[in-house]
Design goal:
mainly alpha, about 100 residues, about 55% helix, two-stranded antiparallel sheet
């Protein structure tokens, strides 16, 4: 178990994505609970199952609406840029003058 497959509807992403997370079970619960996509285990993944999952996500407007709602929330908070900045800082790929000034004070 652990690894989960899901199909997610989004304007900028293809309707089917494969995501494997270290915390896959909690990610699955979030995706299913928020109705932003469908999940299945790797063991249950086959052409017929994937086709049914994609069909539901693409044709059920609740998935599109919920995904757009989350997309807007991320954009409003500038979430992708914040996440990218944190990753760059964590891996030492860039510097943050504001953070450095505060830590040197």
């Amino acid at each position: 178990m652990g690894s989960r497959e899901y199909a997610q509807s989004s304007r900028k992403k293809p309707p089917g994505r494969r995501e494997i997370y270290a915390d896959a079970d909690s990610q699955q619960r979030r995706i299913d609970g928020k109705k932003t996509g469908k999940t299945t285990s790797l063991d249950d993944l086959n052409a017929s199952n994937l086709s049914a999952l994609l069909d539901e996500v693409v044709n059920n407007p609740i998935y599109r609406d919920n995904s757009r709602s989350i997309q807007k929330a991320i954009a409003k908070k500038n979430g992708l840029s914040v996440a990218a900045d944190l990753l760059e800082q964590a891996f030492g790929l860039t510097h943050n003058p504001i953070y450095e000034a505060a830590s040197n004070a």
